[in-house]
Amino acid sequence: RNGQHIELGIAENNLFLLLAALGLSGPLFGARLMPVGTVYDPFIARGLDALNYACYQDARFMLAGTPSGISLAPEGGAHQSISAPLIGMGQPGLTLFEPAFADELAAIMLWGFGHMQAADGGSLYLRLSTRVIEQTRREMSEPLRGDILRGAYWRAVPAPDAPLALAYCGALAFEAEEAYQAVLEDIPGAGLLAVTSPDRLHSDWQAARHRHSTGEASAPSHIETLLGQLKPGAALVTVLDGHPATLSWLGSVAGHRPYPLGVTAFGESGDVNALYHKHAIDAEAILDMAALACLDATL
Hints:
- The protein has helices at 12-23, 25-29, 48-56, 84-90, 102-115, 142-150, 173-183, 198-213, 222-227, 245-248, 272-278, 283-298; strands at 36-40, 62-66, 94-97, 123-127, 152-156, 164-169, 191-195, 235-240, 257-261.
- It is α/β, with parallel strands linked by helices.
- Strands 5-7-6-8-9 form a five-stranded mixed β-sheet.
- The longest helix is centred in the C-terminal third of the chain and has 16 residues, at 198-213.
- The radius of gyration is 19 Å and the shape is globular.
- The chain starts with 11 loop residues before the first helix and ends with a helix.
- The mean pLDDT is 94.
């Protein structure tokens, strides 16, 4: 009734086997459990075969991988995840979320426990961070909650003629906000897009494109609606503490020019700010990319 904690130690494959077994309690025994597993984010790959077969069997669980990316700076490259977001996006039966703020996470977890029980539901992968960032103070409205769960929302809606928007995912919310405030000095109408689930955005977009290709009438995908507010041909600078391919596809949605930033090499031991600078995902790198995007537009 009060839950149970099971400590497996350094045994990621065993963790996913356990999550699979607990997550199959509904169809096997008629009572649905709500297993939540936690793991070092880069070590998801250690148990990937077991994770794959857990999803293949339609086991239901919630997995939290932390810390994300190179934000675990002092421990070196072996403990820093790079391709984990792509694993989350590519794994059937598993939905990836990477929120930045606690109110986003609360909305996602509430939805997630329902999704784990739904007939057409599945499991969740929450890519989180132990990095401390300043939290937003806002009322969680239903429209905002819906956008968070669909995968993205505008923290600052772009002006109709804006030539640029920034898009970020997860722990880089602070760097994106800092860069955005600097961009406003030269581009007052620039936009700032918060991506909470690149997985749900991409799946929804692909499904909408498939319906359109078969002649089925349907509403545009959520990301088409959001990016439809940014004029075609505008630059879209994307950034996350993970592989840049996670967000680079956003430029294909509505004819925008993509300028993706992310991590593509193993990090060294160091402090967070130094590694963010080395791997060009800090506020300075975002501004440099935004400047390049604006320069390209004039050529």
